[in-house]
Amino acid sequence: MSQTVDRALSILPLLAEGPADLGQVADRLGVHKSTALRLLRTLHEHGLVHRQPDQRYRLGARLFALAQQAVENLDVREIAHPHLVELNEKCGHTVHLAVHEENEVLYIDKVESRYPVRMYSRIGKPVAITVAAVAKLLLADLPGPERRALAERLDYPRYTSRSTPDATAFLAELAKVREQGWATDLGGHEESINCVAAPIRGADGRAVAAMSVSAPNVVVSADELLALLPLVRRTAEAISREYSGKTPVKDTE
After folding, report:
1. Residue range 114-150, pLDDT digits in tens
2. What is this structure's pTM?
């Protein structure tokens, strides 16, 4: 039975490459045509493959519906949380997870710093969208027209002397973030707080969330925090692999 299931499932990645006829499927599986036909008929009955008028087979609509349903039911917070805790244990600083929803970027998870000086931030609270590192990552991932339209309608509060001053500067920063694949907030929201962030991506490569490490200057300098960037990015990549359904690789540091 396990061999039959394995063979049936092996047909799906074959058809993902494009339509194939019965002979091609049988050859790829290394089985007789009658066996391949039996497997294809079973998959066809469940809507996972479809037989075209030219007698070739392709992936069925039911498979795409199942994939979409699986994506919609993924909870990025549940997947990310153990990784955030592990990162916090390694570096000791505050770790955040954020998503972009309805024109706001919101914190959806937080692991507190082990140090006495802590950040004022809450799960469910919107971030300072024009300066926060997680916001820059999520907005940089938007298509160009959406980025420009958003930048034009935002206000640009001067939280500190390092805050983003206007739409032109914001778009330039988003372009930089989009190219390098990570972001920082070095005193842009609070003079004494620095932050480094990396994106969490889905199977389609789009950013579904962003995670960050933040710390006050009295605990670590900006340069010391920036030195954690490789670790932050590896953590984000591990979460991305798990969220996308790929085998996660354990960080050995």
Report:
1. 887 666 677 878 899 999 999 999 999 999 999 999 9
2. 0.70
Residues 6+ apart with CB under 8 A from 85: 95, 111
CB 98 within 8 A of CB 107: yes
pLDDT at 246 over 80: no
Helix (H, G, I), strand (E, B) or coil at 69: helix
The residue with tokens 């001053």 is 165
* Cα separation, 207 vs 99, whole angstroms: 9
157 pLDDT more than 60 = yes
Contact 239, 99 (CB under 8 A): no
Q: What is the pLDDT at residue 74?
A: 56
Report the largest interatomic distance among the alpha carbons of the chain, rounded to a whole angstrom: 73
Task: Give 53-100 pLDDT, tens digit per residue.
Answer: 999 999 988 887 776 665 555 588 889 999 999 999 999 999 999 999
HEC letters along 118-144: CCCCCCCCECCCCCCHHHHHHHHCCCH
First to last CA, the chain: 41
- Strands in 104-111's sheet, in edge-to-edge order, are 104-111, 94-101, 207-216, 193-201, 183-186
**Percent of residues, the chain, with pLDDT higher than 70:** 92
| Buried-exposed string 164-200: b where 16+ CB fall within 10 A, e elsewhere | beebeebbebbeebbeeebbbbbbbbbeebbbbbbbb
3-state secondary structure of 52: coil
Residue at 139: amino acid letter: L
Q: For the purposes of burial, counting CB atoms within 10 Å of the CB of 61, is it exposed (0-12), middle (13-18) or buried (19 or more)?
A: exposed
